[in-house]
Amino acid sequence: MTMYDIIEKKKNKNTLTKEEISLFVNGYVNNEIPDYQVASLLMAIVLNGMNDEEVTNLTLAMANSGDKMEYNFKAVDKHSTGGVGDKTTLIVAPIVASLGCKVAKMSGKGLGFTGGTIDKLESIPGFRVQLSEDEFIHQINEINIALISQTKNIAPADKKIYALRDVTATVDSIPLIASSIMSKKIASGASNLVLDVKVGTGAFMKNVEDAKELATTMVNIGKNANINTLAILSNMNQPLGNNIGNILEVKEAIEVLEGNGPTDLKELSIELASYMVSLFKNISYDLAKNQVVEALENKQALNKFYQLVSSQGGNLEKITFNPKYEYKIYSKKEGYLTKMNTEEIGKIASLLGAGRMTKDDIIDYEAGIILNKKINDYVKENDLLATLYTNKEVDLTDNYLHAIEINNKSTENKLILGVIK
Ligand code: URA
Q1: 102 given a catalytic annotation
Q2: Labelling 267: which of 39, 93, 295, 408 has CA 20 to 30 A away?
Q3: CATH number 2.40.40.20 is the correct assignment for the domain at 3-49
């Protein structure tokens, strides 16, 4: 069997065997198969799909392509498929750790229009996202939680394949997205996993049907790999919470941990944390939710966050926020805010300096957006819609006005769109 035969087989809509999938994944990582052949196979997968067994075999081959984390304890993890304003990790990880669950989390940096947890943590002066493996494990044993940036060589096959997908229009394929995400989770040693699959204008999945299929595929892969896995489908037709940008998002996460903050962010955080506790402790969702709400009310989650920050060298008191430029955006129309092009708003935040357009861009932690009006808010002429903060001289007011729609009727806007077990 050669790579040519494998491409031919998938082109003709046939099922690839475990050996064929391993041959392509290992051959690519070892530089024995050229980019053009892998790109051709990826396109055949995009067009003709993969069945559950093929997706699981692809995931395992990628998970086994590099280092694998192993712990002498069970941990619980969460993963979001990527969104704008999503700072839930900063909230749910301390909540569940304060309830006795172990969180050993390796997160990524943001790229494109979505933010990354590591950038948000690095906006806290002194916060060390690079702990040694010993420090990482020791901290989890001591305080139940550590959040670090991925240092080990986790799923190198995914890294190489993802880079190729990015330039060959082969990103938007459910089997390829599901195997990419789950290979990293398997290699990171997760034993309980809650997935937050985003749906809408700021997500890979633009409609609920596709999101359900992606969620079901990932839950099946998780189960096949002996990970307790569950997925929530959540709305990304608008940014989550009111703040976008690294320092602004840290501040908003603290507001929620203090018992305040925007309703959507609070509701999704409680939902994710409740499922994480329920999986980790093997208790009902209702019982877990009572514990989560109490951990927020009695501030034990907030204190766990403070403990996490100080254990990793961060100093919240040293955060300063004095961006040079502030652009206030006022409405030119009256009516209900009915649409937010969330991907576009994420790109505006990146252009202000909050994110990276290429992987070597330097982030401005102060840059970002505060949203004053969100979907279904009634807006009058000259009402403040949003404020843009930046240290660059870039006026993106018109871009923001183009990214939203104001109409005379409100629209449906549910936050949680389903749970896949
Ligand atoms: N996130 C990933 O890690 N991989 C994908 O393919 C898409 C989103």
Answers
A1: no
A2: 408
A3: no
